[in-house]
Write a structure and sequence with these properties.
This protein is mostly helical and about 575 residues long. It has 2 domains: about 5-305 and about 375-570, Sodium/glucose cotransporter, CATH 1.20.1730.10; about 305-375, no CATH class. The chain has helices at about 5-25, 30-35, 40-55, 55-70, 75-100, 105-110, 115-145, 150-200, 205-210, 220-230, 245-260, 260-265, 275-310, 320-330, 350-360, 375-380, 385-425, 430-455, 460-485, 490-510, 540-555, 565-570, and strands at about 330-335, 370.
Length: about 575
Amino acid sequence: MDVQIWTYIIVGITFAIYIGIAIWSRAGSTKEFYVAGGGVSPLANGMATAADWMSAASFISMAGIISFAGYDGAVYLMGWTGGYVLLALLLAPYLRKFGKFTVPDFIGERYYSKTARSVAVICALIVSFTYVAGQMRGVGVVFSRFLEVDINTGVIIGMVIVLFYAVLGGMKGITYTQVAQYCVLIFAFMVPAIFISIQMTGNPIPQLGMGGTVAGSDTYLLDKLNGLSTELGFAEYTDGSKSMIDVFAITLALMVGTAGLPHVIVRFFTVKRVKDARKSAGWALLLIAILYTTAPAVSVFAKTNLIETVNDKNYADMPQWFSNWEKTGLLQYEDKNGDGKIQYYNDKSKDEAFLAAAAAKGLKGSELKIDNDIMVLANPEIAKLPNWVIALVAAGALAAALSTAAGLLLVISSSVSHDLIKKMINPDISEKGELWAARGSATVAVVIAGYFGINPPGFVAAVVALAFGLAAASFFPAIILGIFHKKMNKEGAISGMVIGMLLMLFYMLKFKFGMFDGGKEAVAGLKDSWWFGISPEGFGTVAMIVNFIVALVVNKFTAEPPVEVQDIVEHIRIPSGAGEAHSH
C-alpha cells in the first residue's frame, strides 16, 4: 500500500481513539472541565504532562533545528529539559498546595488584587496564543504533506478536531486523550530512529548509534557528518557559532519560561495529593527524556542522509519523496546554472576559497531551500523505510501538535471563563453558565489560533521560543516571589510583570519583526545591534531580571501585604502533616 493509504488508516485509527476517549470522558462539571475532577493517577498524569509538554516544536522542529544549527541547536535541549526540572522542584508542589486552577488565579489571590489578576490574564493569553500558533502551523505542515492538501486546509482540519475534543471533554477528556497521544508520539518518534540507527551504524540504540562508527567502516558518524558539512562550506556540525552569553541567555529564558507556562502548571492540579504532583513530575521527566535524548541522534541521521541523497545528484532521478515535499512548498529547487543537478551548499560561507572554487565550477548559489520543519517528517522517506513507518510518523506529529494545542486552548478558555467572567465580571454566574462560557471561549480561541496557523510568524520552534521568552519575562518572577517572599506586595508584582512583558514585546518586535527598522527584510542586518549580543529568543532572561529588580524596588517603597496573605504564603511552604504537634 502507498504512504497515503497507510496515513489515512493510521491517522484515522488514532483520531477515532482520541474522539472516542473525549466522548467517554465528557466533562459534566467545571471541576472536571478545568482539572479533570482532581483524581488522575501519577503515571497517567505523567504521560499526559509529557504529551502536553512535547509539542510540535519538540517532535517536528527541535531535531530539525539541531540538524541545521548543529551544536547551537543544543540550547533547546538544555533549556526545555532544565526548565521541566525547575518546574517540578520549585513550583508545582507549592502551587498545588495553594489550590488554584490557573496561574492568573494564583496571582490574583496571592497579590489580593483584581489588577494583578487582569495583568496575569493578558499575559497568559499572549503567551498561549504565541505558542498555539506554532502548534497549528505544525498540524498544517503534516496534513499538507500526508493528505496532500494545502497547508491552510490542513490547519482548518486540525482546528475542527481539536475543537471537538477540547470543547467536549475539557481537562478530563484532554487528560486521557493525552495519555493515548503520548503512546502514539513516542512510538512514532522511536521506531524510525531505531530503524535508521541500525541501518547506518548497526546499533539499535539511537543515542549510542550517534556516537558510534558508520556500519562497515572505522569512521565515526559525527566525523563523517563534519566532513560532509565542511565540504559544502558549512561550519563543522559539532562546532557552535553562538556567543557564550547568548547560549546562556536562551537556555535560561527557555528554562524559566517553562516554569511560567500556564498549560503545564495546570496539570499538577489534576492529581489527588501534593505528593502525587511530585511523582507525576518525575514520571513526566523520564517519559520526556526518551524523546529528548533521541532528538540529537535523529538530527544527525537526517542531515547525513539528506546530504548524501540530494547533493550533486540529477534532479530527474530524485525519489518520489522529493517531489511530494516540493508540492508543499517546504522544499524548493531552482536550477541556477542549468545543468540539471542539485547543488546544495552554503553560498553565504565565510570561506572565500570555497566560494571561488564553487564559482569556478560554474555554480551560481545554492539551489535547494529546505524548511527546518520537514527534517523529522521526511527522514523515514529519505532512509527508504517501509510506508507504514512514514505514516506512523505523521500520526505522531499530529498527536504532539494536537495534545499541546488542546492544553493551551484549555488555558485560554479557563482564563476567560474562570478568571475574567466568574472572578471579575459576573461572580454570580451558575456552574452551567461558566461551563458554557468556557466552551464558547475555547471555540473563539480555536478560530484565532487557526488564523495564526495560516499566517504564521516564522517557523514552529522560533515562535515557541518567543512564547517561552514572554512567559519568563512576565510570570516567573511573580510566581517565585509569590511563593518564596512573603512580604512581596501587589504593587511590586504588577509593575514587574507589566515592565517585563512590555520590554520583551518591544525587543521581539524590534529585532524579530523589524517593526521600527524597515520591516522583516532588515532583521538580518540588526544582529550587530542586539543588546549585550543577546538574540530575541534569549532576551526573556534580561526582561526577567528587569522584572525582578522593578518588583523588589517598588516593593521596598510601598506598603506590606496584609497579614493574612503573609500567613497563606508561610503555610504553602510547610509540607502537609509537618508541625502539627507543636503548633498549639
